[in-house]
Amino acid sequence: MNVQEILGTISDFVWGPPFLILLVGTGIFLTVRLGFLQISMLPYALKLVFRKKDQSSEGDISHFQSLMTALAATVGTGNIAGVATAVVVGGPGAVLWMWVSALFGMATKYAEAILAVKYRIKDDNGEMAGGPMYYIEKGLGWKWLAVLFAVFAIGASFGIGNTVQVNSVAEVLQSNWGFPDLATGIILMILVGIVIIGGIKTIGKVVSIIVPFMAVLYVAAGLGIILFHLEAVPAAVGLILSDAFTGQAAAGGAIGVVIQMGVARGVFSNEAGLGSAPIAAASAKTDYPGRQALVSMTQVFIDTIVICSITGIALVMGGLYQGLGSDVEGAALTSATFESFLGPAGSLIVSIGLIFFCYSTILGWSYYGERCIYYLTKKPVSILTYRLVFTAAILAGAVLNLETVWAIADVMNGLMAAPNLIGLLGLSGIVVAETTHFLKVKRQEESASRQ
């Protein structure tokens, strides 16, 4: 058995049914304990995204910039390529299970963020530092588990957060416009380096421009497909709903494949439970942990319920997954689907969207990695070293064959979740207590505003 096969076996275990059950099960457990807060509080949470009141509160960046940083790290290949893979392997019904995982994932994301803000600290540079490594150590008192999370997250930052993203960009530029891989690597090194050297404040400003622009462009194209072909929507949605419980279109016709692909691709896209996004949440300016937690919760809604849904419905409407899907998967299938509806402009939008989404993902993950490096070393100089090595790795991602790196990144991404989920379950009582306190404050604020 070679290295690739060994990594494949480990990845299959890490992302297998027991792990996915633990992920979704944690979300269900938190949903019940929080009284389905992700549904009742969603309208208020969406309003908070643009709230200016907390600008004077302790923190480094605004609610909006924190959300955009988290979205920058998640909106990308999962929304374009991941959904297509789920539909090809799991059939149209996988889209419904992505929605289910997102519903409960919102509660998980809420809990992650509330703990991240509660247990955050100020580093030697006067910037906020928080995330699973801090709430696992300070909340549970298990430093060894916190260290494990930080190590896995650093590994993931170089894999799923850097080299594989660069590789995707290089592939798109090479196949569509014949752009040399080396040139792609050099340009991305420069574009990433000049942003991450400024830290979270610069990253927050840049992604606050890139992410909304590209998300709106991609969503507009997807909605255009749906609105101009409304007659095909009921059949597509009906197929998603019926196939979710039959598995007829899945590989081998197994319902388990439908559920596994839908949940796995949903988690891959929104990262609920993996523990990455709360690192960005900890940097937000906020007066109460619960307030920022509600903002963070909307990330899953935007990423999966909105963007992934548009991709999934368009793919099912197009039907190309039944023909091209056997040979063309991932981003290429989404691109072909958009082109079938919108002509060359559709393919161009998907390609440009993938490039910018990958770039913003690299920026978001660079911050996650540097916070974990700082946690392990407690030395500000280690952050600069990390940024330099992280930027240099971009060139490798552009020019090397990353089959093995992809496999390692997949494993690291999954391994991050285990310590984080243990932390969430062990500290669920704190999450409920903080939520109860915040909701009481919210009611008092609303009462005062009416007087």
Automatic annotation (TrEMBL):
Primary site of residence: membrane
According to Swiss-Prot or TrEMBL, what is its membrane topology? Multi-pass membrane protein
User: What are the record keywords, sorted?
Assistant: Cell membrane, Membrane, Symport, Transmembrane, Transmembrane helix, Transport
Keyword Transmembrane helix (UniProt): yes
A cellular component term, taken from the record's GO annotations: plasma membrane
Question: Where is this protein localized, as stated in its record?
Answer: Cell membrane
The record ties this protein, via Gene3D superfamilies, to: Amino acid/polyamine transporter I (1.20.1740.10)
One GO term in the molecular function aspect is: amino acid:sodium symporter activity
So which residues are the signal peptide here? none
Q: Where are the transmembrane segments?
A: 20-46, 67-90, 96-119, 140-162, 182-200, 207-230, 236-259, 300-321, 341-368, 388-409, 415-433
InterPro entries from the UniProt entry: Na/Ala_symport (IPR001463)
Keyword Amino-acid biosynthesis assigned? no
Q: Which family does it belong to?
A: Belongs to the alanine or glycine:cation symporter (AGCS) (TC 2.A.25) family.
**Protein name, UniProt field:** Alanine or glycine:cation symporter, AGCS family
Q: Which organism is it from?
A: Salibacterium qingdaonense
